[in-house]
Amino acid sequence: MPQKPSAKAYSLVLFLVVLDQLTKVGARSWFPQRIEFNRGSAFSVDIPTVIIIVVAAAMLIFFAKAQHKPWWAALFVAGALSNTLDRILWGGVIDWIHYPFGITGNLADIYLTVGVIGLLSTFKRT
Predict the structure, then answer these.
(1) What is the pTM of this model?
(2) Contact 47, 41 (CB under 8 A)
(3) pLDDT by residue, tens only, the chain of 126 residues
(4) Residue from 20, 46, 86, 109 carrying the catalytic annotation
(5) Would you call 86 a catalytic residue per the annotation?
(6) Which of 21, 41, 45, 64 is the most exposed place for a label (fewest CB within 10 A)?
(7) Of these residues, 20, 46, 86, 95, which one is catalytic?
(8) Which are the contacts of 78, defined by CB distance < 8 A and separation ≥ 6?
(9) SS3 state at 50
(10) DSSP of 83-110, one letter per residue?
(11) How many CB atoms lie within 10 A of CB 12?
C-alpha cells in the first residue's frame, strides 16, 4: 500500500532547511572569505524569483502527494526550499563549500543532488 509523507518526512524537510540555513549563517560569520554569492538560479542561469517560488510550491504539492518516494522527495524539497529562501532573504544563494574544478555549493545543493539521484533510482526500468 503506498504511503503518504508522514510527520517524520515533513520534520526532516524542516530540519534540513534549518541545518542548511545555520551552516550558511556560520559560514558567513566564521569563513567570509569562502562565501560566493550566487545571484543566478540553477547553474547560475538567471530565473525570476517568482518562477522559483511557483516551482517550489509545485514541489511541495508533489511532496504532499508522493506515494512511493517521500524520503527522496523530502531531500529534494528541502534543498529547493532552502535555496529559494536564500533568494528571498538575500537576493541570491550563499555558496560556501568549494569542490574541485571550481564548483562551489552548499548543503542544499547536496540535498538536491542526492534527492534527484534517489528519485531517479526509484523509477522502474521497462
Answers:
(1) 0.79
(2) yes
(3) 455 667 787 889 999 999 999 999 999 999 888 898 887 655 555 667 677 677 777 777 776 666 666 788 889 889 988 998 998 888 889 999 998 888 889 999 999 899 888 877 876 654
(4) 109
(5) no
(6) 45
(7) 95
(8) 12, 13, 16, 17, 20, 108, 111, 115
(9) helix
(10) HHHHHHHHSSEEE-EE-GGG-EE-HHHH
(11) 18
